[in-house]
Design goal:
6-stranded antiparallel sheet, alpha+beta, single chain, 171 residues
């Protein structure tokens, strides 16, 4: 009898955990699902290219602006961008799974804002003060939506010490 109860308990636990995983979708899988739609375009940019572009693009800028760009780009490991001009029919289901993933993997909601047409969210996967993954969603189910998935090694104190952050606080 004990063996039967143990077996049933383990079976229920395995079934329940699989069901929970089916209700989640990490940012990369979310973007992959949306990329299957004809109205989507995605780009992956490696960190070294972002750093190079940051150094090259700043040649015409003032010294302070150059430093701000370098500070921001120096901690990015990879950037993935998705633009969707028309949301697929099952978009809200996938988005709910993404949010479930954020909650179950302890992502911190840093920004959530909306107006009549847009919903903007910024979620961070942090280990202490280090931001490992930053996901920004700018959603508009009627028009273009954009998702950024940024892998980084930026710590919050470094961010707070950056010139651009100090200037934002002064505004």
């Amino acid at each position: 009898m004990r063996l039967l109860i143990t077996f049933l308990s383990i079976s229920l636990l395995i079934t329940f955990s699989d069901t929970l995983r089916a209700q989640e979708m990490n940012p990369d899988k979310f973007m992959n699902k949306l990329l299957k739609d004809d109205h989507s375009l995605g780009v992956k940019v490696p960190g070294w290219l972002i750093k190079f572009a940051g150094k090259t693009a700043t040649n015409d800028l003032e010294k302070e602006e150059q430093e701000m760009i370098r500070e921001l780009t120096s901690h990015i490991k990879k950037l993935r961008l998705l633009v969707n001009t028309k949301a697929p029919a099952d978009f809200s289901t996938h988005y709910t799974k993404l949010i479930n993933y954020f909650h179950s993997h302890n992502y911190e909601p840093l920004v959530e804002a909306r107006d009549k047409e847009h919903k903007i969210s910024l979620w961070a996967d942090m280990d202490g003060d280090i931001i490992h993954n930053l996901v920004i969603t700018i959603l508009n189910e009627e028009e273009t939506s954009t998702v950024f998935n940024i892998k980084s090694d930026l710590d919050m104190q470094t961010l707070k010490d950056m010139n651009f952050f100090k200037r934002l606080q002064d505004l």
